[in-house]
Amino acid sequence: MKHLLCPSCTAVNRVDESRLDKAVCGKCARPLADGGVLHLDAKRLDALLARDELPLLVDFWAPWCGPCKMMAPAFEAAARQLAPGVRLGKVDTEADPALGARFRVQSIPTLVLFRNGVEVDRLSGARPAADIVNWTRGRLG
After folding, report:
1. 64 contacts 47 by C-beta, under 8 angstroms
2. Is residue 137 helix, strand or coil?
């Protein structure tokens, strides 16, 4: 059993690992791990890191960044491939520069992989979906 934070209402749900792909929130009935990319602010990121038991891959990006824009479709494709066992989210460092600074993001795009609320590894630079998926799976074992 895993504890998953609902991306819609932030309720914590207890889910059987074999049913992650079909799991819905007990409070709002929305999917818990549907492969969509989450748009994260500090509050939502902190909640996921503290209370969600799925690994989380975060793309730190900015709307003015050409490589970030180029990588966006690949990141969305990677989210669909890694679901339901890994969550993917994006942090707009232009809208929330303090969050980028807090995680010591020095260049964008930067991917940061978290497990159990702790950073596992990071990777800078735009990547195709296959590289994102392989890198993530390789780091998670």
Report:
1. no
2. helix
Q: What is the pLDDT of residues 8-36, one digit of tens each?
A: 899 999 999 899 989 999 999 999 998 89
- Work out the burial of residue 63: count CB atoms within 10 Å of its CB; fewer than 13 is exposed, 13-18 middle, 19 or more buried: exposed
- Residue 6 falls in the annotated catalytic set: no
Distance CA 94, CA 5 (A): 26
pLDDT in tens, 90-128: 999 999 999 999 999 999 999 999 999 999 999 999 999
Number of neighbours of residue 86 by Cβ within 10 angstroms: 21
Q: Which is catalytic among the residues 6, 9, 25, 68?
A: 68
Phi, psi for residue 130 in degrees, rounded to 5: -60, -40
Mark whether 9 is an active-site residue: no
